[in-house]
Design brief:
Length: 195
């Protein structure tokens, strides 16, 4: 029963995140298309006139961070047979990183360093966690292969983003590096419930 609770938490958290971003982007002070192409996810969480629903985006960051920690430690850990210490460490780094992003906004010179640290913990930590998870389960079947693919894709996107920070299309690669964790959370919820 506890595994199913964790599974539903993963599904609800991932869907909430996607919906919160879509709604926040819809009300952002730019067209929907331009918001996704030219504005970072973090900009949606800055409390200013550009993002009237900043609180919604920040709630999604905090929720997905809590879901990763809760879901992994409460339910998904039962599927991890190797590298458990690494799994727990990466779970905490990733979850706490996303929570920091939701609590400490970008755009403020006094706190932007902490926001950036949280983002690196969430994005880099999250994608490394996916790679580790894929190699720490009893099997290397379809779920594990998809998990590995998502992790590698996220790491490649993060690497590209790192070198094009001043490029106007950087937010595209930011999203490509963030979404693997969100997709994985949904797939993991389904995986836990089915197994």
């Amino acid at each position: 029963m506890k595994s199913k609770v964790a599974g539903y938490a993963f599904i609800i958290g991932s869907l909430y995140y996607i919906m919160a971003e879509v709604i926040s982007a819809t009300f952002f002070n730019a067209s929907f298309f331009n918001t996704y192409i030219f504005h970072t996810i973090s900009e949606l969480g800055i409390p200013n006139g550009n993002s009237p629903l900043f609180w919604l985006m920040n709630s999604a960051f905090i929720l997905i961070g809590l879901v990763v920690i809760f879901g992994n430690i409460y339910g998904f850990k039962d599927f991890i047979v190797k590298n458990r210490a690494v799994f727990y460490l990466l779970t905490l780094v990733t979850g706490l990183g996303v929570i920091i992003v939701g609590l400490i906004h970008g755009g403020n010179p006094l706190t932007s360093g902490y926001h950036t640290l949280g983002a690196v913990m969430a994005i880099l930590g999250g994608n490394v966690m996916l790679v580790a998870v894929s190699r720490s389960m009893a099997e290397f079947d379809r779920f594990q292969k998809v998990t590995l693919t998502l992790g590698i894709a996220g790491l490649i996107a993060f690497w590209i983003m790192f070198f094009i920070m001043r490029n106007p299309f950087m937010p595209v690669f930011e999203r490509l590096s963030v979404y693997p964790l969100i997709i994985w959370s949904f797939l993991t919820g389904v995986y836990i419930i089915r197994n």
